[in-house]
Amino acid sequence: MKRRDEQRQMMLSQILTSEARARLARIALVKPEKARGVEDVILRAAQMGQIAEKVSEERLISLLEQFNTQTTKETKVTIRRRPSVLDNE
Prior knowledge:
Layout: H1 2-15, H2 18-30, H3 32-47, H4 57-71
GO molecular function, one term: DNA binding
Keywords: DNA-binding
Organism: Olea europaea subsp. europaea
């Protein structure tokens, strides 16, 4: 497991610029699952040959926005008022 994480980080360091890696590390501090998902997307794209050059911070931001639109769950709040004894008037 540790070896796999080391390989993953090595691959990401080859794909991402230092600014993009720093931004992704800051995101991982707050939302590790989101950072992991974005890393997966980047690694898959690199393996498929869709990434020709290093991913800059601006490109990472656009990937994050795409990731957010795909994974955002809509929260719905429903308020139901319980009938009160005083409401029978």
